[in-house]
């Protein structure tokens, strides 16, 4: 499955020639291996440092390391996302393997996410068909908005949904086609069994290792990931053009590295066949067409927060 629709090609195709798009869309194993190894190696190094610090110096001194680990673990969303597009490696097997590994760590079943994301690309910013809009609501107060920005609600909702799929065997969300529902159920059950096995092993050991190097960081990392994800489309037009309905945010090299170049998000939506490592080059070719270009995530987060407040006030004003 490649996440590029005929409509996308008609709308965005004029920005690049077919030859340019073909050159940019070439897949290569090397960039994916380098990015994957550095991301996972960073998690291993920081995780080891957390455990050693807690064992020798106490839990409180490990807090800064846990925060860093949170960023790294939560942002495994990025290799999962890229693997859903099958653009990390030339090999489908390697893409699926990396996708499942990353998805398992962040608690977001890979096959389910791939189908969810496929519809997101097909129907970006369509309030009746985009799963990201169907799956979210405008927070009704600043308190609820602040909670939404922590990402904890979203993490809890997808965990509950996965367990519901695993336990009941029923999949009713509209973005999962009938012929894929059994796959989603099998996947949810496999993930749930792995989590159960890890829980039993941790109790039997006994050890809190996974709690401090994985679970606590995963929860804390949502507070960075969620504002980042809100920046992708919040406040953008609800049109078919990726250059209008998606935001590119300019940020530092470190963020781009661990976000797998997804801050170039308008480019990604316009040409989803282009691998992550080619997005900076694509940006240089199409930047003048992108309507929403964010000057860093702090400023964009203030913009998205303000948009949510305006949307809430507008909804309240039109409610009888």
From TrEMBL:
GO process annotations (BP): ceramide biosynthetic process
Pfam families (UniProt xref): FA_desaturase
Entry's Gene Ontology molecular function annotations: sphingolipid delta-4 desaturase activity
Domain Fatty acid desaturase: 60-299
Domain of life: Bacteria
The entry's keywords: Membrane, Transmembrane, Transmembrane helix
GO CC annotations on file: membrane
Transmembrane segments: 37-54, 60-80, 92-110, 194-220
PANTHER family, alphabetized: SPHINGOLIPID DELTA 4 DESATURASE/C-4 HYDROXYLASE PROTEIN DES2 (PTHR12879), SPHINGOLIPID DELTA(4)-DESATURASE DES1 (PTHR12879:SF8)
Name of the featured protein: Fatty acid desaturase
């Amino acid at each position: 499955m490649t996440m590029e629709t005929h409509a996308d090609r008609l709308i965005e195709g004029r920005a690049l020639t077919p030859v340019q798009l073909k050159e940019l869309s070439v897949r290569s194993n090397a960039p994916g291996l380098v990015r994957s190894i550095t991301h996972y190696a960073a998690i291993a190094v920081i995780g080891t440092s957390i455990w050693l610090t807690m064992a020798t110096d106490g839990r409180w001194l490990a807090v800064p390391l846990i925060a860093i680990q949170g960023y790294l673990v939560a942002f495994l969303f990025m290799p999962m996302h890229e693997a859903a597009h099958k653009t990390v490696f030339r090999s489908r097997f390697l893409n699926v393997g990396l996708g499942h590994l990353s998805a398992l760590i962040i608690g977001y079943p890979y096959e389910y996410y791939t189908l969810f994301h496929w519809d997101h690309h097909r129907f970006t910013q369509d309030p009746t068909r985009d799963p990201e809009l169907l799956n979210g609501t405008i927070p009704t107060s600043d308190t609820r908005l602040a909670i939404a920005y922590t990402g904890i609600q979203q993490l809890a909702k997808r965990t509950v949904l996965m367990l519901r799929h695993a336990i009941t065997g029923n999949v009713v969300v509209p973005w999962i086609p009938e012929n894929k529902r059994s796959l989603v159920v099998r996947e949810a059950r496999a993930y749930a069994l792995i989590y159960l096995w890890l829980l039993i092993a941790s109790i039997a050991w006994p050890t809190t290792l996974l709690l401090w190097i994985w679970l606590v960081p995963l929860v804390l990392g949502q507070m960075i990931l969620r504002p980042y994800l809100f920046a992708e489309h919040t406040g953008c037009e609800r049109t078919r053009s990726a250059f209008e309905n998606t935001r590119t945010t300019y940020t530092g090299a470190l963020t781009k590295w661990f976000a797998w170049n997804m801050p170039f998000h308008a480019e990604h939506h316009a040409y989803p066949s282009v691998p992550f490592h080619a997005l900076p080059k694509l940006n240089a070719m199409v930047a003048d067409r992108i309507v929403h270009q964010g000057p860093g995530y702090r400023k964009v987060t203030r913009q998205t927060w303000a948009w949510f407040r305006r949307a809430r006030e507008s909804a309240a004003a039109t409610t009888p």
